[in-house]
Amino acid sequence: MAIFTIILLVSTAFALGDATIRPKTPCERARDAALNGPIGAFIPTCDAAGQYTPEQCSGSTGYCWCVNSSGQKIPGTETPPGTPRINCITQNATIRPKTPCERARDAALNGPIGAFIPTCDAAGQYTSVQCWGSTGSCWCVNSSGQKIPGTETPPGTPRINCITQNATIRPKTPCERARDAALNGPIGAFIPTCDAAGQYTSVQCWGSTGSCWCVNSSGQKIPGTETPPGTPRINCITQNATIRPKTPCERARDAALNGPIGAFIPTCDAAGQYTSVQCWGSTGSCWCVNSSGQKIPGTETPPGTPRINCITQNATIRPKTPCERARDAALNGPIGAFIPTCDAAGQYTSVQCSGSTG
């Protein structure tokens, strides 16, 4: 019996050695990574050949969607739990992107309990009458889903016929048209806010960035009113507010905040002027500037060294010496380059050492 077992094991080993084991597919690798990831993460479904199945579902949310052969979600195919799914495998199916109504409905379904959930027709457009399930109120809307003033009816009262030919629906305002265009634009685009009459509200905010600003009646930004997230907003509706244009320092700061990570961001005082000392957060270097924000030669100090008093009236600011200029060039040069040592007066010290060679 023992001899038979040994023969069987050897035969199995040879059989496995002859078998061709294919490498894992992208779907299988993604599935393995998800299985080792956090609880509730989306785990892709692969077929017997290791390819993405045309329909993918998230077990933790109940949402399903169609994917292409690379596993990428096809826009407009996601369906929330409890709603009919799109047939992802039919060849003749035309898969359209979701409409504003469908996107608003999806957002509401994922929102707080009792929130208003818009009703969309089979084509994804807003139905002419909308009702709030938790309050029982109903109202007419235009094609953009905006409530038509004077059409709301409380629960238990007769509803207005929203599709009657005699209903007078005003044309969309510039704000409403701009908002519609933004809702159909790329994710994260600025979406203007309109009041009940369709006019621009005096304060506009960008949801993706958190910045807010004042606008005029045409929706144009009023210079100098933009406030970054987390800072107090300007009162855009006060009659006495004097709105000044942004200063060169503020404009330079705004440009830097929207620039690459680690870029120098100038510091401005309460009046928007350059502070006398400027520091680069990424490098730790500081220097003095004039009223135009231009660096004063010879005032830059590397991190960990005493700063020059930029605001003293009696300070005499000398130009940099050859040693200091050579040191600055070396500090901005390749790693391991020789960096000269200068004394307090900016002159070469009598002994120099190379840090990389000793």
Explain what this protein looks like in three dimensions:
By secondary structure, the chain is an alpha+beta fold. The protein has five domains: 24-97, Thyroglobulin type-1 (Invariant Chain, Chain I); 98-170, Invariant Chain, Chain I; 173-243, Thyroglobulin type-1 (Invariant Chain, Chain I); 246-319, Invariant Chain, Chain I (Irregular); 322-358, no CATH class. Helices cover 19% and strands 7% of the residues. It is built from six helices and eight strands. It has helices at residues 2-18, 26-35, 100-109, 174-183, 248-257, 322-331, and strands at residues 55-57, 64-66, 129-131, 138-140, 203-205, 212-214, 277-279, 286-288. The strands form four sheets. The protein has a two-stranded antiparallel sheet with strand order 1-2. The protein has a two-stranded antiparallel sheet with strand order 3-4. Strand 1 and strand 2 (64-66) form a beta hairpin. The longest helix has 17 residues, at 2-18. It is flat. The protein starts with a helix and ends in a 27-residue tail after the last helix. The model is unreliable at 4-19 (pLDDT under 50).
